[in-house]
């Protein structure tokens, strides 16, 4: 089933207008929720970010957070008990093409679930990454459909044999093309502050909580490209990649060139966090 403008429908019932502003301008926002054993992981945090994105681009939906969250639960229930992700996007709606925002326009919402499993070997062994110039706008905190710089960067990485592109803005590391980036130096975790130059990842929020519980110092300060290359450990986080070690950047090994101890400690803590989430849901279902 698909979630289409607030209703669960079959694929045949979905009709997107050629006048949809998502199609013309990328005028819309989206979220990717992880589903572990049929349950939406960190649902409230994703909902909050979605409504914040809509607020910042001035898209108004007729559903409040709670009503929409209930619809997403229905969609996830239809998906079953497996592992996967839920993709949700909301465009401003359809109207004859004009740059200004039409007065009367109804947003268009599409959601669906797909089976998905984490890339275990990458999470265990780590990945090569490359750096590239951050050519994006100054509102990267909005999870907007405008992903052309991100897709071009990822393609560039792929062609260089790397698994992620790391954005560099004026000599400073911002984030990955679809992930947040962290360095570990002298036992301290550092990542770019959650300002308008990065998307504040939901996984990033979990990492900050976990680091505190584990007693690992965590700093919200940007690092330079030189500090990145000289770090003891580098890792990235996202809903689909969880915590993935970065073992080389631009063909230079990072630290020992293998996943480091702080990254592995966080991975173990993250797995325990998921288990607690699982148990909570099993208890709430019973
Ligand atoms: N930054 C960017 C640019 C992203 O696309 C993503 C993936 N959505 C992230 C960071 C990580 O966010 P999350 O942990 O919520 O998946």
What secondary-structure arrangement, pairings included, does this model have?
Elements: E1 2-4, E2 7-9, H1 21-25, E3 28-36, E4 39-40, H2 43-57, H3 65-79, E5 84-91, E6 108-115, H4 120-125, E7 127-133, H5 148-159, E8 164-169, E9 172-176, E10 180-185, E11 188-191, H6 202-214, E12 218-219, H7 225-230, E13 233-238, E14 242-249, E15 252-253, H8 261-285
Helix pairs in contact: 6-8
Short description, anyone?
The chain is built from 8 helices and 15 strands. It has 286 residues and is of the alpha+beta class.
Provide a descriptive summary of the structure in words.
With 286 residues, the protein is of the alpha+beta class. It has two domains: 2-115, D-amino Acid Aminotransferase, Chain A, domain 1; 120-274, D-amino Acid Aminotransferase, Chain A, domain 2 (Alpha-Beta Barrel). The protein contains eight helices and 15 strands. The protein has helices at residues 21-25, 43-57, 65-79, 120-125, 148-159, 202-214, 225-230, 261-285; strands at residues 2-4, 7-9, 28-36, 39-40, 84-91, 108-115, 127-133, 164-169, 172-176, 180-185, 188-191, 218-219, 233-238, 242-249, 252-253. The strands form two sheets. Strands 7, 8, 9, 10, 11, 12, 13, 14 and 15 form a nine-stranded mixed sheet that branches. α6 packs across α8 (261-285). The chain is globular. It starts with a strand and ends with a helix. The model has no long low-confidence stretch (mean pLDDT 97). The structure holds 4'-deoxy-4'-aminopyridoxal-5'-phosphate. It is an enzyme of class 2 (transferase). InterPro entries: Aminotrans_IV, Aminotrans_IV_CS, Aminotransferase-like, BCAT-like_C, BCAT-like_N, Class-IV_PLP-Dep_Aminotrnsfr, D_amino_transT. It catalyses: D-alanine + 2-oxoglutarate = D-glutamate + pyruvate.
